[in-house]
Amino acid sequence: MTQDPLVIFTPSGKRGRFPVGTPVLTAARQLGVDLDSVCGGRGICSKCQVAPSYGDFPKHGVTVHEGALSDWNAVEDRYDRVRGLKPGRRLGCQATVQGDIVIDVPPESQVHRQVVRKAASTKPITMDPATRLVMVEVQEPDMHEPSGDFERLAKALKEQWQIEGVTAPLSVLQKLQPALRKGHWQVSVALHQPAGQDGMRVLDIWPGLHEGGLYGLAIDLGSTTIAAHLCDLGDGRVLASSGLMNPQIRFGEDLMSRVSYAMMNPGGDAEMTRAVREAMATLAAEIAAEGGIDPALIFEVVVVCNPVMHHLLLGIDPVELGQAPFALATSGSVTLPAAELELTSIAPTAQAYLLPCIAGHVGADAAAVALAEEPDRAEDLTLIVDVGTNAEILLGDTKGVLACSSPTGPAFEGAQISAGQRAAPGAIERVEIDPETKEPRFKVIGCDLWSTDPGFAEATRDTGVTGICGSGIIEAVAEMRMAGLLDPSGLIGGPEATGSSRCEAQGRTFAYLLHDATSAGGPRILVTQGDIRAIQLAKSALYAGARLLMDQRGVDKVDRVILAGAFGAHISPKHAMVLGMIPDAPLDKVTSAGNAAGHGARIALCNRAARSRIEQTVRKIHKVETAVEPRFQEHFVNANAIPHATDPFPELAKVAALPQIHFGASSGGGDGTGRRRRRRG
Amino acid sequence: MTQDPLVIFTPSGKRGRFPVGTPVLTAARQLGVDLDSVCGGRGICSKCQVAPSYGDFPKHGVTVHEGALSDWNAVEDRYDRVRGLKPGRRLGCQATVQGDIVIDVPPESQVHRQVVRKAASTKPITMDPATRLVMVEVQEPDMHEPSGDFERLAKALKEQWQIEGVTAPLSVLQKLQPALRKGHWQVSVALHQPAGQDGMRVLDIWPGLHEGGLYGLAIDLGSTTIAAHLCDLGDGRVLASSGLMNPQIRFGEDLMSRVSYAMMNPGGDAEMTRAVREAMATLAAEIAAEGGIDPALIFEVVVVCNPVMHHLLLGIDPVELGQAPFALATSGSVTLPAAELELTSIAPTAQAYLLPCIAGHVGADAAAVALAEEPDRAEDLTLIVDVGTNAEILLGDTKGVLACSSPTGPAFEGAQISAGQRAAPGAIERVEIDPETKEPRFKVIGCDLWSTDPGFAEATRDTGVTGICGSGIIEAVAEMRMAGLLDPSGLIGGPEATGSSRCEAQGRTFAYLLHDATSAGGPRILVTQGDIRAIQLAKSALYAGARLLMDQRGVDKVDRVILAGAFGAHISPKHAMVLGMIPDAPLDKVTSAGNAAGHGARIALCNRAARSRIEQTVRKIHKVETAVEPRFQEHFVNANAIPHATDPFPELAKVAALPQIHFGASSGGGDGTGRRRRRRG
């Protein structure tokens, strides 16, 4: 008796013998090979494309001859004619096994394909979204065995896809009968399975094969900005990324002023809820247009945000978050219909998922950072700071993770800075100051030249030089400190003391003229003493939060620092350390993770298991409440100096010399501290 | 060593020994005794009232002495002072066991108390509603062990009530924090558990003990009328029953004309959906007012209806129900938020449940009749006819159940009858005609006297005699037949043939003058030849449907007939049989079940298990499609005669003599038949 042909799949290496005539897709399914199919083997969707290999395969112990697969058939012909099939590709549902064969499953044909993000430091996302598309053939109704069209759809899903316990919302029941008849009893359905639940819910239905795709939004809802990625739930591609200002800013720049607004104004929380929901709906519509898709095909929304934004988005009065013991209404993840968040522009059945919150002041954004950066899996003791209006801080390794948040205020984002502006073309983002001449040069967003390069004026003619953004002000302050224009207490020296005419008197203090654009109709861009104080307050809060976690962990130094946050990617590690934003660490161990919270949201969007994982992880994180820790205040005061009043910075000393200068009695630090302690955001 | 005291509960007989000091409620719970409690033993809700018995109990082998329970305590004192406790009653959570004791659990203290309905023929409802109230004490938040208020509520429900997997909609999360603080960390929650599912959902929350109750609506949504019962979900009491006309009547009197309206008018289905939803919302508000409760405390709605009404209520275009193979969009039960049915006057989180449909023409109303009357558990072969604009017909016993529906039209409800009207004060509901004098006497709704009794005119002065309702026209036609005014073909005799001047000529036919109210400013109430034809068409459809099921079952007679339907209670069995509405059967085996569909809805409202049970039962019912059965037509034609052209009525012959008369060539029957076959409703 001759043996059945041997079928070997690569890259998995899974193998088995199958009778002659077995479709490749059938063999793959029986072996548990990760080969995609939406139409279930009807030769329509082309998701099951495979690449057969011919020749000798000593590693696998087989020789593959021509004819090991059945001849190209009419379905493949038609598909190739209409859509085009790459050379060497076959449709797995059409090609049948005729002899020993080695079959490669290309990445785009894998259901659980991996999506690599740009920053290579973090792990790729494995596609396993909560919402998927399948096509199914439904039995026609029979008067003598009456059953509903939906019941026959459920039966078909069970028989053809082994999917049980399917339910449908009213909107799908309303579309069901026309779709079945128009599709000649073949329909595509978008099926949603929430994490940790068995049953699946039909979110939408289309006649025949739905080719428009399914999409999701990963939204990082910050106090100041709302940023979103539009992702293809099929292959994980990011089709568009967009953002807008959080309109709640008009109710208060930081979180605590918004909580106060809610407390002082009856209905104020509802006003803020309405504002943020409208902005999110607008953003969803805009990003769909930018990505060139129908917004009604957005079926999932994942939101990460701090606790106050979380409550305001959900329509929960945040008043309890403004006073000890800072009780969250709910700390677990929240799954709900997106319609309840008034995201009216997207699919009416779309589902929203909010990551869990860690504590009253440590939100779903921190959870998302933990999901993206996985401090719980780090061998090195890792400090992660997610810099925004409110900073989320995580410290940990495989032995355990600590978390807190700290009220840095919006200075790092360019707000509360005299010439501050959003990161947009024309904004100064990089600064260098010559230690000898005290003369600056800078770069602006949207131009690759330094301001001292020939052609800079021409290149920036359209935008001009309009202000200074978050990373720009950090570099400017650090450069001023290194150039001897700023003493450790944060005082700007006058023209005599510094020898620079750019140090201009402003009342009782001085300001440093970074750029005078008046001749081009622009502003005079100064770094004022007030700007320095705002940055000092922000960086002290950040440092004090990190230091508090180090105290709890019982360490004086960390092995590694990751700068995250929407603009974390743009901060220069050296300048951050000169400023004393972060504890001293070897410079090559200070890296940037970009928008880690947003990336965490994308992971949760594309991978169901990640949702369960972060829900588990969050329960194990030890939370530290900065607002009631007496040592926070002490750390905050000591961190006011640049870089620090007491903590040594030996690693920084290796790369930067900070002049030991003193311009006079500092009036900073103390006065602002009391006010700041009441503010979050 | 002395034994622990013996505790015996009646009526269950459950017994066990418990240490001195054990609260009675604790002992009951450990033995699985059905003793209610909402507050969980805090002495607040008084649901756990018990009645201890003292003296000798030879049957139980114990003697109970004074002091077998602890002394009356302060909590009981306060409760008695504020609310009053019946003599001999104790609070089970306060009284503790001190010696051997016999404790009776009165019916009102049982969770699963039984509710007996008025008609004693059917079984009582055991209370086990899907939505129940529990009170719980929640741990206060702790900044150092941060967890959300909701997560601590879930923990308390698990620890205090063994309820796991609790979820909450946004509206509850929004109310949660103020409720917990106002209730000093004690709250009541309405918990909903759908049939066949494990998890429970919090539908609402109140500070402290919620004393306003939880309510449900059982709605029988008919083609012509919408009837509802308002029930207390705690004890099953019906607080109010109310009804109104289905406003869809303006789109067509019967079901098929409404389906046609939807087919002919784009958006017509949406118009009808809006109309019926508005009517239901109005009815819900009215019935709450009538019952004296806040409509926001209505948390459940159970709806039974025929398939066309089912689809129109759900917003599903009923077009498929108008043509073979009469495919339902969904045949299973439907559970959905009542808000999706725009029942805006009730609790925003209320849940709606629609019973399953049996087939394209046999709806959830037939399923409800099966639930109420349980033909599948009958030893006798039982025929159940639910008379309405569309008749639901069930035939079966423990060996199996058959079902069909038949398009009787609205004649039985007084529509399409010249002097027809709704059953309301002033409507003729009972009729007798003297076989000798051919003179009638009658009763009207709202008056206990016969029209020939002294004082009748005085008693009906306010309402007058305004028309004839469904049961009145049935009796009138049957009495005319028995009095020799009507021949078997349905022709009314003239004054010469009948010897009665009440038989007036109307064109080529005659009409019988039942009552002339013109002297009192009222109408002349006549039974016209057209009225007879309408009743003949309706009764033929009903009889033919029943006969078809008997054919399928292979029988010529049935053991028992149950007349159900909103006005089934008012039909006289004898008159129904004279008319030939139902097959011949011993008169004492023809009973009325009142509104069986409405009662089935009430069962499903009050008992979760009943929902699962009817979902199972429905799958086993054999469906017969009258619209495509050739024999239906034949049965219909033969049933046109009064009582019948061919079938013998031996049981009827024992109680009524029907004159063998013939007034001329009948033009009835045939002409109407063709038209009727296209109509349902």
UniProtKB/TrEMBL annotation, chains A, B:
Pfam families: RACo_C_ter, RACo_linker, Raco_middle. Residues 5-109 form the 2Fe-2S ferredoxin-type domain. It comes from the Bacteria. InterPro entries: 2Fe-2S_ferredoxin-like_sf, 2Fe-2S_ferredoxin-type, Beta-grasp_dom_sf, Corrinoid_activation_enz, Raco-like_middle, Raco-like_middle_sf, RACo_C, RACo_linker. This is ASKHA domain-containing protein. It comes from [Roseibacterium] beibuensis.
